[in-house]
């Protein structure tokens, strides 16, 4: 087949690179899992911290010392396993990305949530109380 016929038939002349499903490759510094998992945890953590602060009036450090560590560990384990399962099967987040909910949007939201948690902690530490 010629290149034009291959493109119209959905065939490509260069094969897609295989994504490694090895544990060490997935969790490598530049691998697909670390930033995505940390971003997802940060998004959940930021929303949960703000919700508890609004409902109970506890600052972030009080939330952590009043049972927040066990919730964090449990959520971290659950979310990490749930995030790794598709990667072990060779399914990337980019392949499931469409419309508004793209993998790039998830990465940026996670990065902003990480910054938000740090800013929340620093602001509450400096002010000596809750943000709101």
UniProtKB/TrEMBL annotation:
Q: What is the lineage of its organism?
A: Eukaryota, Viridiplantae, Streptophyta, Embryophyta, Tracheophyta
The compartments listed are: Membrane
**What is one term from the GO cellular component aspect held by the record?**
membrane
This protein's name = Early light-induced protein 1, chloroplastic-like
List the signal peptide residues: none
| UniProt keywords, alphabetically | Membrane, Transmembrane, Transmembrane helix
UniProt membrane topology term: Multi-pass membrane protein
Per the UniProt record, which residue ranges are transmembrane? Answer: 37-55, 67-88, 108-126
């Amino acid at each position: 087949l010629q290149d034009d016929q291959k493109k119209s038939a959905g065939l490509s002349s260069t094969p897609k690179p295989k994504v490694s499903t090895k544990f060490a490759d997935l969790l490598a510094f530049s691998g697909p899992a670390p930033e995505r998992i940390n971003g997802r945890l940060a998004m959940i953590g930021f929303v949960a911290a703000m919700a508890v602060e609004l409902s109970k009036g506890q600052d972030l450090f009080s939330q952590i010392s009043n049972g927040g560590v066990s919730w964090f560990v449990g959520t971290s384990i659950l979310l990490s396993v749930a995030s790794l399962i598709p990667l072990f099967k060779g399914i990337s987040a980019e392949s499931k990305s469409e419309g508004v909910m793209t993998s790039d949007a998830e990465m940026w939201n996670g990065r902003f949530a990480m910054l938000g948690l740090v800013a929340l902690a620093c602001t509450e530490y400096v002010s000596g109380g809750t943000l709101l």
